[in-house]
Automatic annotation (TrEMBL):
<keyword id="KW-0732">Signal</keyword>
<protein>
    <recommendedName>
        <fullName>Porin</fullName>
    </recommendedName>
</protein>
<dbReference type="InterPro" id="IPR010239">
    <property type="entry name" value="CHP02001"/>
</dbReference>
<dbReference type="Pfam" id="PF09694">
    <property type="entry name" value="Gcw_chp"/>
</dbReference>
<feature type="signal peptide">
    <location>
        <begin position="1"/>
        <end position="19"/>
    </location>
</feature>
Length: 238
C-alpha cells in the first residue's frame, strides 16, 4: 500500500493539466482537487496518523446539474488506537444545489475503504447538510449517519456537526470554526471542535497554494492521538 500511494498522489498533481486539456469537450463538467501535506491527520478530532505527518490527495468531478463524485486518499499510521492500516480512501458521490434565499443543500454517500486494516473497517455513511451564505460568511449544519454494519462494529454511528467560515473581503485569508458530536452506541460518544485560519496564494488561473493552521481538541481523555493540538498544513489546490 505504501508503494501505491505515492504514484496516486503524483497522478493527482498532474490532474490540473489534464483538466485544462479536457475542458473544451467537457464544458458541463469541472475537475477540481489538490494535494495537502499536514502535520497530523485528524478525523473528527482523533488522529489517524499517530500525530505524525500525513499526505492527502483529492479529486472531485462535478456536473452543472449539481451532481458530483470523487475520491480522497490519505496516508495513515497506526499508533495506540484502532489499526486502520496504511491508507484511507474516501469514495463519495452526491448532489449540491441552491435552495434559494442564500441556502443550499449537500447530500450524498461516502464509502470509507482502508488498505491493510486489522479486521473489517470499510463502511458506508450517508450525509446531508444545509448551508447558508451571507456576505463573506458561510455557515453549515449537517449529519453523517452510518447504519449498523461490520465496519461500525455492528453499531449505528451518528455525527452531527456545525461549521462556519469567513473570508476577509479583499484579502486571501479565511477563518474557520467547526464543532461536532459523535454518538456510536456501545463505543461511546464525544465532542470535538476546531478553530483555524487559511492563507491562499494564487499561482495561476485555476491553481493556488494554501497554508493553514488549526487548533483541534475533543472532550475525550487527553491521551496521544485525541488530545489538543495545533495542526499545520500546506496545500496545492486547483
Amino acid at each position: 500500500m505504501r508503494r501505491l500511494l505515492p504514484p496516486l498522489l503524483v497522478l493527482l498533481a498532474a490532474a490540473p493539466l489534464h483538466a485544462q486539456q479536457a475542458s473544451a469537450p467537457l464544458q458541463d463538467f469541472d475537475l477540481s482537487g489538490g494535494i495537502v501535506a499536514m502535520s497530523d491527520y485528524r478525523f473528527r478530532g482523533v488522529s489517524r496518523s499517530d500525530e505524525d505527518p500525513a499526505l492527502q490527495g483529492n479529486l472531485t468531478l462535478s456536473h452543472t446539474s449539481g451532481l458530483y463524485t470523487g475520491v480522497t486518499a490519505t496516508t495513515l499510521r497506526t499508533g495506540g488506537g484502532p489499526d486502520f492500516g496504511d491508507g484511507e480512501f474516501d469514495l463519495y458521490a452526491g448532489w449540491r444545489g441552491a435552495l434559494g434565499r442564500g441556502f443550499d443543500l449537500d447530500a450524498g454517500l461516502t464509502y470509507y475503504a482502508f488498505a491493510g486494516a486489522a479486521g473489517h473497517a470499510d463502511l458506508a455513511e450517508p450525509y446531508a447538510s444545509i448551508g447558508y451564505l451571507i456576505g463573506p460568511a458561510q455557515f453549515a449544519a449537517g449529519a453523517r449517519y452510518a447504519p449498523s454494519q461490520r465496519g461500525t462494529g455492528d453499531e449505528d454511528r451518528l455525527y452531527l456537526f456545525g461549521q462556519a467560515s469567513v473570508d476577509l473581503p479583499g484579502r486571501p485569508i479565511a477563518f474557520t470554526a467547526e464543532a461536532g458530536r459523535q454518538d456510536w452506541g456501545r463505543f461511546g460518544s464525544y465532542w470535538n471542535w476546531s478553530l483555524g485560519a487559511r492563507y491562499r496564494i494564487a499561482i495561476a488561473r485555476r491553481t493556488a497554494a494554501e497554508i493553514g493552521l488549526r487548533y483541534v481538541d475533543t472532550d475525550l481523555p487527553s491521551t496521544r492521538g485525541q488530545d489538543a493540538g495545533l495542526l499545520l498544513s500546506a496545500a496545492l489546490r486547483f
